[in-house]
Amino acid sequence: MTGTEATTKIRPANTADAAAIAHIHMTSRAVTMPYLRPQRRDHAQVTRWIEEVVLASCRTWVAVRDGEVVGYAALEGDMLEHLYLRPDIRRQGVGTLLLDEVRRHSPDGLSLYVFQSNVEARAFYERHGFTVFDTDDGQRNMEKLPDMTLRWTPYDAHR
């Protein structure tokens, strides 16, 4: 077990986590996706969206290290809607821990959307067995940026 796995715990999210999740969501998008337009919603509005939409419609988990929420993942059906980390803890195994938890709850497979220009995220998911299912010119997302659907199917689902 690595130090990250020993000190980072994954647990179901609750409404008390909403403000921390909103902060991670906003900060991560600003740092890792500079090609997106600046966020028009403030922290309170994003927190409300996390409470009323994400936590209400998705199974959501948080990664907790030293008592602080450092990342989250949200699953709706077999679609990974969100997986975001605090920028300062990227590349420390936390994203893998969250993804592993989501996959445990997706025995028949998992899909997600990723912007085509998000090379780092695409590489992360490809390292974890995701393949390109389709591509789109941006008409299906509100940012209007070309994206792709990635799909992971567990070995046992092919039998």
UniProtKB/TrEMBL annotation:
Keywords: Acyltransferase, Transferase
Principal EC category: transferase
Pfam family of the protein (one): Acetyltransf_7
Keyword Iron attributed: no
Statement: the UniProt record of this protein carries the keyword RNA-binding: no
GO molecular function, one term: acyltransferase activity
Entry's EC annotation: 2.3.-.-
InterPro entries assigned to the protein according to its UniProt record, in alphabetical order: Acyl_CoA_acyltransferase, Bact_Acetyltransf, GNAT_dom
SUPFAM superfamilies: Acyl-CoA N-acyltransferases (Nat)
Domain of life of the source: Bacteria
Domain N-acetyltransferase: 8-147
Annotated PANTHER family: ACETYLTRANSFERASE (PTHR43877:SF1), AMINOALKYLPHOSPHONATE N-ACETYLTRANSFERASE-RELATED-RELATED (PTHR43877)
Protein name: GNAT family N-acetyltransferase
Organism, scientific name: Streptosporangium jomthongense
